[in-house]
Every structure is written in C-alpha cells, then in structure tokens.
Amino acid sequence: MMLLAFETSCDETSAAIVSHGRVLSNVVSSQIKLHAEYGGVVPELAAREHLKNLLPVARKAMAEAGILPSHLDAVAATQGPGLGIALLMGFKAAQALAFALEKPFIGIHHHEAHLYSPWIASRGEAVLADFENFQPNISLIVSGGHTMLVLVESELKHRVLGGTIDDAAGECFDKTGKLMGLAYPAGPIIDRLAEQGNPAAYDFPRPLLHEANDDFSFSGLKTSVRYFIRDNPTLLDDPQKIRDLCASVQSAIVEVLVKKTLRAAKREGVRCITASGGVTCNRGLRQALQTACQKHRITLRLAEKSLCTDNAAMIGILAERKLRANVPVTLFDGEIMPGWTLA
Predict the structure, then answer these.
(1) Is the predicted pLDDT of residue 32 greater than 90, yes or no?
(2) Where in the chain is the domain with CATH 3.30.420.40?
(3) Which of 111, 262, 286, 314 has the greatest number of C-beta atoms within 10 Å?
(4) Is the entire prediction scored with pTM above 0.90?
C-alpha cells in the first residue's frame, strides 16, 4: 500500500507518504513566524497559508518518496478536531485527490493518531512503525489545545480516562510566558530558561494533583502566576528571577503531568507509558517521565521530537493500519469534525 496523508488541523501544513508501516517522507511547513506577532494562531491566516502550501508540500513529499500520484493506493487526512477553516483545507484537498484517482479515502482523528506516534521510530535512515513490540499503555497527549490520558488496551482499541477541563498544559505555558513578556510561542522559551533556574524558588499550585480523577486543569496555575507577577512588579527586571520563575512554573506543570500519568498506569495495571503532543518536546517533561518510569520499572516510549508536533506521518501510519484492519473508509462527501472528541 502506498498512502498520502495530509495534516492541517492548526498552523502546520504537512504531507507524508507511508507504505507498509514505513514513513517514506514527512514534510512540514510551519507558520510560527507568521502568527508570532499576533501572540497566537489566527485561523483565517492559517487557512490562507494552508491553501498556499498544500500543493508544494504534497509535491515535495512525493518527490522525497520517489513516487507519482498514479502510484498511490489511498489518501488520508485529519478530519478533526482542530480549527475548522484550517481542517477544511487539507481534508477537502485529500478528498478531491482520492476522488480523482478513484482511490479509498479515510479521515483520521488527530488525537488518535497521537496515540501511535510514540511507536514510530527512526532506525538509521528508515522511519518505521514498531507495532511488533506494541503493548497496552497509558498514553499522555499534551499540547497547546489538549491534555489527556488514554488507556490504549490494544491496537485501535482505547478508552479516554480524563482530559482538559479548562486550560491545557501547552496553553498554560504560552499564557504564563506572555505574562512574563516572552515571545510566542513561549513554551520552548520557558523550557530553555528553566534549565538555568531554580524550580523551588516560587511555590505555585499543582491543580487537581490530589484529586481522584484523571482530568487536568491549569487555569488556576495561570491565574496564580498572574497575581504573583502583579504583586512582585520588579521581578521581571531581574533575568535570574525570570529564569527561576520559568523553572517554578514548569516544575508545577510537569509534576502534575507525570504523577497523574504514573498513577493511572499503576491503577490500570499496565507497564508501559507513552507520551506525545507538542509539549512532549519539553526537556523537563521528558526527563521527569524518564526518571519516574525508571524508578518504577515502567517502559516509556516518547514520540520523537519531530513527531510530537502536528505532522502527517502519524496520520498516514494510523490510516494505513485502519485500512488494513478493514475499518470503513470515509465517504467522499464526508465533512470535517472540528469538535470531534476522542471516544
């Protein structure tokens, strides 16, 4: 099977070629610089960029894989969730291509694809899906828009345990960074500054850490940082105090993510934890997960950093697995699902 996948759920235009569990190409065109001056993603601008970039990105993906459109056996695209106008660009383009080629088309749930991105790994020059070693796991998906814990019992079988009830972890990183005067996106900047800061310098709340559920809430932490900066107006004039503040905020977020993930794994009786989504690029989170899993002898699979953020490779890998499992294809008049929740 030779499959072309598109991902346009937010501000990255991506196309990938997947064949027999191998990622032959994965091209991503980011819009971070475009949206930086607005302090966040502007949907209309994102859609225009997707429209401009889709064809060049798809052509580059096919060129890197050494194939032509006539070689394709199927086409896939993210169907939801995401920004409606952004989803529309990739989804309709993929539908039209599949219709023109008379090939199967399948719409993919963005979060479900993240569940399987930790199983995609580089081996030398090859990028392969390692499903031979697949085992039941607790999957932490943590990004700018979502934070959730999912029990993945077997391939294509999962159950959501809990999720974001207000601000997601990535959103908290960006919003607290904005309060500090950091550029957008602030998450990577906080991660970098935190390395030289004291995580115990300031004590911030760990929301829902001790609640008997698997949900996440970071709006209270964001508010706490806002009041702390208001009450300490000269703090932002001291570079070291800013680094300490970044480290303290990151420590609070990471502790909640790691402890709740570990607790869910113990409760559900699984010996494997996976993590994906843009915030999984955070070095503090990756290190804390590694330390916790080593201590408790739990297998940890982290998505490669290039596959943590939005990408078409994970969409294509999941689409291929679904097609091989005879999951019904998506109709050519199917529609996007911006608010699609992971069941």
Answers:
(1) no
(2) 3-131+307-324, 136-270
(3) 314
(4) yes
Dihedral angle at the C-alpha atoms of 55, 56, 59, 60, nearest 10 degrees?
-150
The average confidence (pLDDT) of the chain is: 96
Closest CA to 23 of 42, 50, 5, 48: 5
How far apart, in whole angstroms, are the C-alpha atoms of residue 98 and residue 123? 31
Which tokens is 82 given?
Answer: 């995401």
Which amino acid, 254?
A: V
What the block records as the tokens of 212 is: 């008997």
CATH architecture of 136-270: 2-Layer Sandwich (3.30)
* DSSP, residue by residue, 320-333: HHHHHTTPPPPPTT
Tell me the three state secondary structure of residue 155: coil
Q: Does domain 3-131+307-324 have CATH number 3.40.190.10?
A: no
Examine the pLDDT at 124 and tell me if it is beyond 90. Answer: no
Per-residue pLDDT band for 123 (boundaries 50, 70, 90) equals confident
Nearest to 254 by CA among 166, 159, 339, 169: 169
Please give the full DSSP string across 82-125, using - where no structure is assigned.
S-HHHHHHHHHHHHHHHHHHT--EEEEEHHHHHHHGGGEEEETT
Measured distance CA(83)–CA(277) in Å, rounded: 16
**Among all chains, which residue has been given the structure tokens 């099977």?**
1
The pair of structure tokens assigned to 62 is: 């096919």
Half-sphere exposure of 268 (CA within 13 A, CB side): 26
